[in-house]
Amino acid sequence: MSEAAVAESVTIAAVPERVGLARTFVAAVLGGSHPCSDLAVLLASELVTNSVRHSGSAVPGGLVTVAVAVVGQGVRVEVTDHSGDSAPALLPAAFADGDAEGRRGLGLVDELAARWGYWRGGGFTTTWFELAPN
To answer: Which site in 2, 38, 42, 89 is 20 to 30 Å from 69, CA atoms measured?
Structure first.
């Protein structure tokens, strides 16, 4: 994405009770009229939930940072946490069987985002996605 017209971030405790705060933050940055708002909120929630459950931030006092950048009608969301033992991985659909909860987050991001990825460095992992209106 080129230079952002709006860029904001928030750092929250890496606990399940704060995932809703991340959703509220993304929705507030984008506003209800942004064409990607609902999808950005959903996918950000999935990435923050992954960080809260699986990253090195998933310890008492751990933190996760959510950043939102808006360029025109496009959106980029980044979720940064302390690196855990493994990198974000898209699991085969067979792992997300039936009515079981979990293991679908990155699958949703992969299916619905225009692009996504991650990078690691300095003890942190940033997982990101970009959306463009249809």
So the answer is: 89
